[in-house]
Amino acid sequence: MPAPLNRRQAVGLGAVVVGGWAVGQVLRRTAPIGRDIGPRADAILTGGSSPEDGPADATLRLAVFTDYRCPACRHAFPAMEEAVRRDGKVRIIYKDWPIFGPPSERAASVALACAEQGIYPAVHRALMTDSRIIDDDMLREIVTGSGGDWTRATAWLAANAQAVSARLRANGQQAYAIGLSGTPGYLAGPMLVMGAIDAGDFGRLFARARAAN
Question: What pTM value is reported for the model?
Answer without folding.
Answer: 0.85
